[in-house]
What we know:
Chain A has helices at about 1-30, 40-55, 65-80, 90-115, 140-160, 165-175, 175-180, 185-205, 220-230, 240-255, 260-275; strands spanning about 130, 135-140. By secondary structure, chain A is mostly helical. Chain A has a single domain (about 1-275), classed as ABC transporter involved in vitamin B12 uptake, BtuC. In chain A, strand 1 and strand 2 (about 135-140) form a beta hairpin. Chain B is of the alpha/beta class. Chain B has two domains: about 40-160 and about 295-375, 3-Layer(aba) Sandwich (Rossmann fold), CATH 3.40.50; about 165-290 and about 385-420, Response regulator (Rossmann fold, 3-Layer(aba) Sandwich), CATH 3.40.50. Chain B contains 13 helices and 18 strands.
Amino acid sequence: MLLFLQSVVNGILLGGIYAACSAGFCLAFGVMGVVNLSHGDFVMLGAFITYWLFFLSGLDPFLTLPLTLIALFLLGFFLQKLTINRLVGSPPIMSYLLTFGLHLVLSNLALRAWTADYRTLSTSYSGLNLDFHGLIIPYSRLTTFAVAMGVTLGLYLLLYRTEIGRAIRATAQDREMARLMGVKIFRIYILTFALATGITGLAGSLISSTFVIYPQMGLPFTVIAFCVVVLGGMGYVPGTLWGGIILGVLESLTTTYLTAGLSLALTFFLLLLMLIIRPGGILGKGIVE
Amino acid sequence: MREVKSQGMNKRIYLVISINFALFLFLSSPLESLGAERPLRFGFPVPLTGAFGKDGALVKDAYLFWKETVNARGGIEIRGKRYPVELIFYDDKSDPPTSAKLTEKLITEDRVDLLLGGFGSSQVIAASAVSERFRYPMTSGAASTLKLFDRGFKYYFSLLGKAPEEVRGCVEILPTLNPRPGTAAIIGANIPFCADAADGFKVYAEKVGVRIVHFELFPMALTDYNSLLNKVKEKRPDVLLVGSHSLVAMRTMKSLKEIDFSPKGVFFSYGPTVPDFIESLGKEAEYAFAASEWTPNLPYRDDVFGRARDFNNQYLKRFGRAPDFVEAASVAGALIQQQAVQELGITPPLKDRDREKIMQFLYSKRFDNFYGPIRFAPDGANEIHPPVVVQVQGGKLVHVFPMETAEGKPVYPMRPWKAR
Amino acid sequence: MFRPQFRFRNLVFATLAVGIILVILPFLGLEGYRLRLLSLVFMWAALSGCWNMMCGYSGYIDFGPVAYFGVGSYCTAILMIKGGLPFFFSVFLAGCVCAGLSLAVGFSTLRLQGAYFAIATFAAAEGLKQVVLEWDRVAGFEFFGGAHGLTFPAPPTEIYFYYFMLFLMGLTVGLTALLERSKFGYGLRAIREAEQAAELSGVPTLKIKIRAYVLSSSLIGCIGGVEAYWLTYIIPDDVFNVLRTIQMVIMALLGGMGTVLGPVIGACFLTLISEYLGAKFVYDYLTLVGVVIVIVILLMPRGIMGTILQSKRGQKS
């Protein structure tokens, strides 16, 4: 029984991480229809910024969160303004390829700057865990989970309770209509993408003490984002939390009771199945074209 | 006013341009350098980017170090004259077909005299298939999967033992530990070298009477090991044996700490000997065991580098880090080819017949250098190089097994995470 | 209104000219590394061409074609190694297996739109890779060879593969040219431009999409089979690698999607600049490739061929 519970808890905590790392991807797709293939690289950059701040000045990873948020917000801002915005109205494949080009540039510049060395970040409290009647709950993952929930909540509030959020949603729903209503589309897009990358960078910082950091760590996170948002519903931001947790728990249970290899295979087939029978995500609130 | 061209004209012009462009790139080739004493050209493909970019860079540095050491004396002395060493290498991006392609390029375009092995079982398998076809001996110090040896190749020489042999030490040490471990769990990444290592662990564990409570291979793409290791933790093995590369080893240690799983010993087939491991993990790296084939304290020596310890110190001075055994093995491979051309009196440029003689020479006798004893079995494996076990103690790698050459005792059981 | 790219007669004439040159090149002294390089270009042109055949014309972006490459490789390997069947027959059978598989996959995924189709095909490919990787250990008997992969017996010399790949490239280009001018091709393009309208006016969209998908996938499978024998060594991580898909797509993009020669040009261009840059800028060339992609997308979204065609069309009007 304990094994089962531990597996579920592991899965939920992992799911929180997945959700945090995928919310930005969901937002970008939901509002702009952009499938950002360089998404994982923002996780990577966030993790590296935190790593270097910690390594050079001893700054605690959690304290670096606002810094990474701002830094990657700015990066996304300029990227969207200079490149992706120009693809508004073009067929979607253009955005796939452009963002893939960005992925090549970002990950290889990182490789050049920081070499392929694997790095880990160990604080005085990393690896410490809460022992709850035999259930081991690592503090760092618990905190990441809490922050992920917070971020999702924050994003939700932003989108549904603020003026700017309304503008973003309007643009997502019907670009031409929003434009007619006076919304400055291109600015909204820039803001949205910047927000997406900022949050993703923040997620990168969150995981910096849990995962090994290296320049090519981004691609797996892009793939995870695909899976999470399909499960949760493309474009439906609160859905990433569900999607992430379901994915995490599924992976965890399959690894525990079957094998780790099968858990990956199952994840992909589940993804395929979801797309075929329920493309709107578990709750059906995703965008279905 | 735009010129109006007809459809056909435009196309023909375009075709002409593109063919010309292609031919131009094709036919532009580097001019042969006509120097006084023609250098001895060694070539190798090596991963500098991709999954093994980190490890490949180590091998490249190793060959560089050899070249610099040799060229500092003017080059390799053959029949009274000195021939400088020239290295040509390309990035194979951790991709086996690229490794094969680059090997062919080195042979046919760059016309290297001899080849050296890169890094990574899959890449080396692909590259050596090409070197075999062109009959270029290839000495490799960074690949040991079984498949390398069962192809009936004559031109492939491995400085390392076969993967299961490499990890033999990690299992043979078990009966000497106190309290003697009775059970073991074996995991490994599902890529050639790591899978072979895991299989090797299994075979030898059964031989020394250790019961295997769990055996599992996991995809390299797995990023989170917590659930996997938790499953293993439930089975309460005395020791954990891991078929690993650097990344797998680092992830394992981090995960073990997070889920508070402290087996009495953790043994890695590869990882802890790479400097990053200790540097990055710091205290979390303590007590990890690793398979190795060479440590600086071993009593080996040769005329080029001196003792094993000298090689270690000079390398440390040059690169700011101590060499791990893969780097030492790679250099040993280059050294052997050097020895071959010297003893056979072969001068560049080499002809096919020369390389055939080198190949036969390499099988003909035992070699000894700072890396240790080397003798190639008919399948290319180094059959007399004893595997050793090292352990991370106090931030350093300590040679703990076999006893005859050990420089310290193993710390077993390892201190549980909560007690550190 | 769509016109075929070139007058057919001109196209045939030009192709024959180029084809003859390529066929006799080995006899003019092309050998060794350069021969291999050109063979690679042919292979990528063929692969990219197959992808273009389906996606360039229909607008459905497939992110999983490498699945068929892998399936084709493994089928050929297993048939030849374990079944002892001759090479050509194995490749043909591999193509048939891919046809069957793609029929199943296509039937379920081609109803999806845009990004969903892309992700679904990607998921199918990755899932398949994992299955091949895990199968042996789970099923308990040696079939795919797991992570160790499969090894072929000794292959014929390089020059055979030069001609095999040249043939495959020619086949792909020829099929694309025929397709473009046929009713089938019009149907595909109608799907790309306005699927719903096409559906309403009686075009059997699903059937057309599936047909294109199956054709393209079977060919990709055959190419995979030939490459497997060429390399003599296949592992899942290599033949099911998503980077192959990306390369196919990029080549089609650079050369011009929805054009006959686009993939060929894209393949030449990308392979040659990778070679050149890769040799000179060992550490930076991937970054440069990324920059090239970004620039091309922003400034020449129709690719080399597409831009040329567009400017010509502009001139005529």
